[in-house]
Amino acid sequence: NRQITLASRPVGAPTPDNFKLVETAVPTPERGQVLVKALYLSLDPYMRGRMSDAKSYAPSVKIGEVMTGGAVGRVIDSRHPGFKEGDIVEGRIGWQDYGLVEGGMLRKVDPDVAPISTALGVLGMPGLTAYFGLFEIGKPRPGETLVVSAASGAVGAVVCQLGKMAGARVVGIAGGPDKCAYVKDELGVDAVIDYKAEKDLAKALAAACPDGIDVYFDNVGGPVTDAIANLFNLRARMIVCGLISHYNMPDGYVGPSILRSVLTNRVLIQGMIVFDWHDRWPAGIAQLGKFVKAGKLKYKEDVTEGLENAPATFIGMLEGRNFGKTIIKIAE
Ligand code: NDP
């Protein structure tokens, strides 16, 4: 059983020597447990937080422990009545070939709805983040302007499309011409901004949002979010979903300068963690699954083969080298 463990804690951006590949015996399940062979591993920005020992909403990975992570896999051996050999499941298997998971913590994946890897993206945690964050906090109304940062990514791409379905005018922000073309042409947003190419981001945003901003779904924080500040309409809503531009900063980011605008425009800012709606995940997955099956919700996956490539791929994702939901293919 190959495992990727945390060798040391990164200072700033993670490097390959923060990770270590080790070999261990394949474990045997005890009562209530299920042994799962990983097929697809999800790489997600939150894992950067788990590598650090700073206080967060979830415990950090300890030095020498297997890196935490969601994966889709096949049941090899089950001592839980809800699962049998051959079932396809999703759960916290970690960065390894085989994981032992409590049966109650696994969910079955229906291969008839969409390819099983989607359980890590559009039909999994990132899709649900978009769904609940947008509809429970952002609540876009027809004709309102919705701005989405990291718009080509796993969460952002779903937000863009759900926003269009809700009748909003959607403006995506992404880095580079390929991602911007995808957001505009494939996801069907009304305008897109390449934040890496714009010298004056605030000006470009003002031009793309002639009626101001009613909902801002923020995945990045930092300078992109600062550029939003003066465009908020009265009673705008801002979903603080992620701050990826801060994650690799050794001392965090100093800001934000948006607060004056928050005050004068009575903007509602709410942080969110997708687990807040855990009891409603099955309903969310069912709804998103219907959209995918009907061809109304597109998704893009960025798949790299081989568990041994997980560290480099993860480091690249934090720098924006991924294009779509980042996934490692571990086995057939
Ligand atoms: P993505 O698939 O969007 O991948 C990350 C993307 O972030 C990169 O492709 C890159 O796109 C962008 N990015 C990287 N660095 C910067 C930077 N300095 N400034 C601006 N953009 C940057 O990841 P996810 O969709 O999985 O996650 C998006 C965000 O949502 C993350 O912040 C994550 O932590 C958060 N999240 C929060 C959850 C919650 O419950 N609150 C749950 C899931 C995710 P580009 O090339 O366009 O810059």
TrEMBL record:
* Listed GO MF terms: oxidoreductase activity, acting on the CH-CH group of donors, NAD or NADP as acceptor
Q: Which domain of life is it from?
A: Bacteria
Q: One Pfam annotation, family name? A: ADH_N_2
Location of the Enoyl reductase (ER) domain: 14-328
Which SUPFAM superfamilies does the entry link to?
A: GroES-like, NAD(P)-binding Rossmann-fold domains
Q: Which UniProt keywords apply?
A: Oxidoreductase
> What is this protein's name?
Zinc-containing alcohol dehydrogenase superfamily protein
